[in-house]
Amino acid sequence: MERRQFIRQTGLAAAGIFAWRLSALAQDTPSYSGVLLPKHNIPADKQLPPGWVRSLYQRGRPTTYTKAKNELRYIGMPAGGLHTGTVYLGGDGRLWLWSIYNDEQEGIEPKTVRWHDGTSERSIRNRDGASYLEPAIAANHRILEQGFALLIESKGQTRLVELRQESWEEVSFEATYPTATIRYQHRNLPLEVTLRAGGIFIPLDADNSGLPATVFDISIKNTSGQPVTTAIAGWFENGARKISAKKGEGEKVNTVHNGTGYTRVSSTFQPASGTSDRADDGSTCISYIGDGAIANANANPWPVEADCFTTRNEKATTAAEEILVASVASPKKQLAPGATLEAQFVLTWHFNHPLKKVSKVKEAAGGYYYGTRFTDAAAVADYIAPKFKTLWGQTLRWRETYYDSTLPYWFLERTFLNIGTLATANTYRFAGGRFWGWEGVNACEGTCTHVWQYAQTMGRIFPSLERETRQGTDLGIGMQEDGGIIFRAEYENRPAIDGQAGTILRIYREHQMSADDRFLRQNWGQIKKAVNFMLAQDKNGDGMTDTPMENTLDAVWEGEIAWIVGLCIAAARAAEYMATEMNDKAFATRCREYVTKGSDNMSKHLFNGEYFIHRPDPVQGRSKLGSYNTCHIDQVYGQSWAFQVGLGRLWNREQTLSALRALWKYNFAMDVGPYIKTHLGGRPYALEGEGGMIMNTNPHNEPKPFGENVTWQLGYFHECMSGFEHQVASHMMAEGMTDEAMILTNAIHHRYHGSKRNPFNEIECSDHYARAMASYGTFITACGFEYHGPKGYLRFAPAFGRERFKAPFTAAEGWGTFQQQVNIKNTLCSIALHYGSLRLKTLSLQTTGTTITATLNGKHLKASLAASGKDVHIIFAQPVILKEGETLEIQVG
């Protein structure tokens, strides 16, 4: 496995990990074979100003980065379709990176940098945090010529002004996802420009969200007191054979096509006879949506000159090694003071060549899913243009739905934006529809179960992709005869215990995010095999798995490990619930007994009075690496997962809260600098001056805390990896530790501030790391959201701000907005559906009351109330079917 080589290959083998400078450490610290270990040095008192903590809950405004503060150069928002390569939208509105050419290199930018960890300097590669230390800069990666320019005719003068930061006094980037808003202002120009850009992104519609396209929606406002005539032109370089073209190999061709309601210029490559098929053979295209456009197949030189707003050129060619640029301009329009011009452009691409790097995956040989739908970039444009109003309208509707909330803007941004990983070269959808992903861009293959099981976003936003992956990969080609799920499918030959349990939990989530029970019924036989395999890993029958197996820290640990034990307990509970739905009473009983026994024993034997631990194997003892009596970030991960899928409390609540408080006390620091300076060997995913939660600490300064034979994997213990941090934050939010959850999430948000690095790229083992999609779990628990599509069940229990709360939600077949207002006498709530449909039989709210009034489209619905703990269940006499545009209104009093 490549991931296991990362420390070895950077000089951090076991001996090197402990080659610390002893002079920097206290003389009375414990040691490993004479090598002193640093003392735990994370302060228990975080010294957080109460006013600052309160500010985290304020609604605020969208996070906005500006030219004035030099915050634009690192910004790279994934702006294409899902699984169509990486195209970044830069801080000033221009596209960059263009990793659409089936690149083999690891990360978004191949590099090795030097890092001084406080004791010595060492080499850091992409998977070790190179892009965290030195983020990619947009100006260095403008692979293709692309941009927009305004024509301004005012007071007898004609000017051309590009949409780039050098041309404007101020440029601001509003960092929402899936679309960003960029504003351009200059005191000496009579116009103000607003650009909205991004890929087509429609939750629940994976196909239309997987188009290789970026949309530019531009609004130009006359801010002067005089009429202004203006137009806007976009240009795009022919990107065919951009990387490999050599003299004499053929020619680039640009061709104009005038369609109904749009104009496009397609860019292709015509090879000379005998030239071979290349990874960068394909096509690009620029389109203007609307009538009357001026298209120029040869806009050289560029940026465009004034004649590009008047010159038409239907076809152009140039030699293979030359640059050929096409432009499309909107018709001129005279704007009265305060009036606006609206213009929409679409850039598309098509490079359907599979990576050789994934040749073990048979499906990869057929190319990509978008390649089966479209013959070239022009065909993509021809598909989008007549549907543009709907496709882009639904994208903007989701953006409005998601951010129209009482939750803080920064919180909504940070918990959602990691789904942009799906719109990078980290994921593929092969010709037959199979979803496949790396851990990080081009690093660690195989849609690894013990990494991807942390990701909560895709299962809620594009559940069909998760269902297909569970059925076709995990329960299909990845399943062994004994029910073990190979954790990297074609790239491994054994299961990982945490990946096994996490996949069972995901199966339950995928069932819940279905409209009916077909997914569960079709796969029940394979699901039972997977559960049986997991249950069998409890050798001594105490409900706590103790079979040594691979885990996400790339090691095989011996003994009974709280985080793995708890994860298996949660999976067994999910299996019990699925068995009950399948009327498989015997299997449900077996799973329930496992949960009961395991939960009791976990509380009795794995809780050290303050937090949950790793109990050594009775034979092996502590001879091998483990967390043992140290404070490990994932120690109650199973309960965290339980809150994501409505499994309820699994084991002792007070012990669980104690464990979370211990993580806060011993592992979280507002400045990790002092810790990483003394605890060496980890990769730099948080630096001096930045906050974060350390993976594993030795708070009691015990000797040999990690076992007798410490190996290279110990380096992980001293890192801050955001995916793990997000799952802890989601758990804290669910348990009422809302301050801690908000602070931890905000620490990650601060680490990825635009002034320091790309806000859209949370890094672990390479760029856009999949585990970071755990962030959406914190949004789920902030809403107290639960959903079960086949049962028609929906629940909201806001973790804070319940008196006046508003937030988006997604279901199996629709999405919309939930809103509630809690008064002394009653609770008013509504569900407004903005897309698709929603079937609802039971709605649960955390409130009290004895009477219920429910209306839909002015019609009263029959419903009854049933109390359960702190919840009130609203049970409809007949299933309610909400359709797009409808609102269900409820009053409980």
From TrEMBL:
Q: What class of enzyme is it?
A: hydrolase
Instruction: Return the InterPro entries for the record.
Output: 6-hairpin_glycosidase_sf, 6hp_glycosidase-like_sf, GH116_catalytic, GH116_N, Non-lysos_glucosylceramidase
Key words, A-Z: Glycosidase, Hydrolase, Signal
Q: Which residues form the signal peptide?
A: 1-26
Q: Name one GO molecular function term.
A: hydrolase activity, acting on glycosyl bonds
Please report a single Pfam family linked to this protein. DUF608
Provide the Glycosyl-hydrolase family 116 N-terminal domain boundaries: 76-389
Q: Is Transferase given among the entry's keywords?
A: no
Its domain of life reads: Bacteria
Residue ranges of the Glycosyl-hydrolase family 116 catalytic region domain?
Answer: 498-776
SUPFAM superfamilies named in the record: Six-hairpin glycosidases
As recorded in UniProt, its EC number(s) are 3.2.1.-
What is the name of the protein in this document? GH116 family glycosyl-hydrolase
Q: To which species is this protein native?
A: Chitinophaga defluvii
